[in-house]
Amino acid sequence: QVQLVESGGGLVQAGGSLRLSCAASVSIVSINTMGWYRQAPGKQRELVADVTRRGSTNYADSVKGRFTISRDIAKNTVSLQMNSLQPEDTGIYYCNADLYGIPWWGQGTQVTVSS
Q1: Which residues, at least 6 apart from 73, have a Cβ–Cβ distance to it below 8 Å?
Q2: Which class for 73: exposed (0-12), middle (13-18), buried (19 or more C-beta within 10 A)?
Q3: Backbone angles phi, psi at 76, to 5 degrees
Q4: 3-56 tens-digit pLDDT
Q5: What does the CA dihedral 113, 70, 30, 47 come to, rounded to 10 degrees?
Q6: How many CB atoms lie under 10 A from the CB of residue 14?
């Protein structure tokens, strides 16, 4: 079982920055892929960014150049640095871990970007 605890959400004006963190209850080196998803009101949950065990990263086109995903293996955390935030980035952001093909989810953290 994997527990994921997110932190760092909040309210920010357009053009601002936020940093989300996800703390895992297991060593993240054992996790195939960790990532961040978001769900806007009335929309499906979508991938924002993820990072593999080997450190390869992947980003949604809409956030490339603005968001950066990173890992701290010693602290078992994955972070998402979000810059140049726009109102369309508003949503609940969820941390995800793929451990042996089984997905685990955090409780989510709200990000609201005002125009």
Answers
A1: 27, 28, 29
A2: exposed
A3: 55, 45
A4: 999 999 999 999 999 999 999 999 999 899 999 999 999 999 999 999 999 999
A5: 40
A6: 13
Whether the Cβ atoms of residue 8 and residue 20 lie closer than 8 Å to each other:
yes
C-beta separation of 97 from 104 below 8 A: yes
Beta-carbon contacts of 4 under 8 Å, excluding residues fewer than 6 positions away, are: 22, 23, 24, 25, 95, 96, 97, 104, 105, 106
Residue-wise pLDDT for 67-106, tens only, equals 999 999 999 999 999 999 999 999 999 999 999 899 999 9
Q: Which residue type occupies 44?
A: Q
3-state secondary structure of 87: helix
Residue 82 and residue 65: Cα distance in Å, rounded? 10
